[in-house]
Specification:
Alpha-D-Glucose-1,6-Bisphosphate, Chain A, domain 4, 7 strands
């Protein structure tokens, strides 16, 4: 069976805080509950060399609906890469979040691509993922702007 087309997204946004303050909010799975709409954010398996590092399994959910992700790149405080392993209707999904110092703040780039599991659903699945990531970007920036991070 031929693979369907990959769909992608890329969001670039500014956070009014130094990179070292922003990184733990993204790099530590359990901190996602602090700033995002998620009701559950747990570390299912520790990674290396840090507990949230490469190989870590993270479970993110709202109520009973959610996804499990594996960390595939972990370079504090600059780069987090992860792939979906369960919970999303995709054959494959990878996202990379990079943080670059920009003056006294941080420029965050959140980019990903996916291949839908069911042919013909690519636009719908991609729209759902883009909307969730867009919401994460706004919530992260707002959380830090309020001085909460």
């Amino acid at each position: 069976m031929a693979e369907g087309p990959r769909r992608g997204y890329r969001f670039v946004f500014h956070v009014d805080a130094p990179r070292d303050r922003v990184w733990p909010l993204l790099g530590e799975a359990e901190r996602w509950r602090d700033w995002s709409f998620l009701t559950r954010a747990t570390l299912l398996r520790h990674g290396a060399p840090e507990r949230d590092g490469v190989g870590a399994l993270r479970r993110f959910a709202v109520g009973r609906l959610g996804s499990t992700e594996e960390v595939v790149a972990f370079e504090p405080p600059r780069h987090l890469g992860y792939v979906a392993v369960k919970g999303l209707p995709v054959r494959s999904y990878r996202a990379d979040v990079t943080l670059e110092e920009q003056g006294s703040g941080t420029e965050v780039t959140w980019a990903g691509s996916l291949e839908p599991l069911v042919p013909g659903t690519g636009a719908l699945v991609a729209a759902y993922v883009r909307a969730a990531v867009r919401r994460f970007t706004r919530q992260l920036a707002g959380y830090v702007a309020r001085g909460s991070g």
